[in-house]
Design brief:
Number of strands: 10
Order of helices and strands: EEHEHEHEEEEEEHHH
CATH topology: Rossmann fold
Oligomer: single chain
Shape: globular
Strand content: 5-15%
CATH superfamily: Peptidase S8/S53 domain
Number of helices: 6
Radius of gyration: 19 Å
CATH architecture: 3-Layer(aba) Sandwich
Largest sheet: 8 strands, mixed
Length: 333
């Protein structure tokens, strides 16, 4: 279950409708229940999902989108999604709306703002926004509670690179999985986008971002049932990683809720961006991590394989690396 906290959602979009948890009769989704599945912290659309900006619908498509046909746009097309609108149709949010959505993620409540239910909480929260300049510690406590509750928080690094210490908040918190952007028009694993924000964090130790994901020229869903390409930002990179978490937990249900192991396997499975020019913010530039590209670009196949192996008695629990081998059997009923 992927929660996206953003500008809203077109839950009727053909690539999203069947993945929205409020759909009660897939595939038609003519019957919906938005309780526990939609919340508008801006107070603009309290009863029914809406996205007047498009950013939230686009990010949701990257994470879970699939229309069952040619538009397989999402990382985890078998996953479900819920949405908390923390920004207006103009793309503006504030401390209160961002905090309210974090709290809703922990224990979603109904459309009346009552009866919070932690059993309805998502597995991962996808954050494609941030405070410019970084160093803003307001959300740390609630993110700590989310992570302690077994919910992975994935955050876009920001678009203020290539200078060092250009992370937005809360991407500069060590607790979250911070995601920078690579240009996927280059051969895998891509080239670091020049504008992708870099570490180090002004708040916490360690290397930032954690990993990189495609964030240049992305195609996904937009309100009105259509699609657009060409979107570029670390905001597009983050939901790739949110979807990857859902993939891994689908492959290994016992891993669900183990945030440290999940983050570690994603990092270890990443492909280092060794030898790229312009790397100067500190760290290991041979295999990572460092403050330009972290551990490298996500490798979904390797990460899911690592999840399988972890489930199989902890084999390769320290990550799946080149040269590792394993075999397993599957019985299909």
């Amino acid at each position: 279950m992927v929660a996206v906290d953003d500008t809203g959602l077109d839950e009727d979009h053909p690539a999203i409708a069947m993945h929205y948890r409020g759909c009660l009769n897939p595939p038609s989704c003519t019957v919906e229940d938005h309780n526990y599945n939609w919340w508008d912290a801006t107070g603009t659309y309290p009863l029914d999902p809406w996205d007047g900006y498009g950013h939230g619908t686009f990010c949701t498509g990257i994470a879970v989108g699939d229309d069952g046909g040619a538009n397989q746009i999402g990382m985890a097309p078998g996953a479900q999604t819920i949405h908390c609108k923390n920004m207006t149709d103009g793309g503006a949010g504030n401390d209160a709306t961002f905090m309210e959505c974090f709290q809703w993620n922990l224990a979603p409540w109904d459309l009346n703002g009552a009866n919070p239910d932690p059993a309805a909480a998502p597995d991962v929260v996808s954050i494609s926004w941030g405070y410019w300049g970084g160093g803003f510690d307001l959300f740390r406590d609630v993110i700590d509670v989310l992570q302690a509750s077994g919910i992975v928080v994935v955050v876009a690094a920001g678009n203020e690179g290539p200078g060092c210490s250009t992370l937005r908040s809360p991407a500069d918190y060590e607790e979250v999985l911070t995601v920078g952007a690579v240009d996927h028009t280059y051969p895998y694993p891509g080239e670091t986008a020049s504008w992708s924000s870099r570490g180090p964090s002004t708040l916490d130790p360690g290397n930032f971002p954690d990993v990189m994901a495609p964030g240049v020229g992305i195609r996904s869903s937009v309100p009105g049932g259509t699609y657009q390409g060409g979107w570029t930002s670390t905001a597009m990179a983050a939901p790739h990683v949110s979807g990857l978490v859902a993939l891994m937990w689908s492959a290994c249900w016992p891993m669900r809720g183990d945030v440290p192991v999940t983050m570690s396997l994603i990092q270890d499975a990443a492909s280092p961006l060794t030898g790229q020019a312009g790397s100067s913010c500190g760290g290991d530039y041979t295999v990572g991590p460092n403050n330009d590209w972290g551990y490298g670009t996500i490798d979904a196949v390797a990460a899911v394989q690592a999840a399988f192996f972890w489930c199989d008695g902890g084999i390769f629990a320290d990550g799946f690396e080149s040269g590792d081998t394993a075999a397993w059997s599957v019985t299909v009923p």
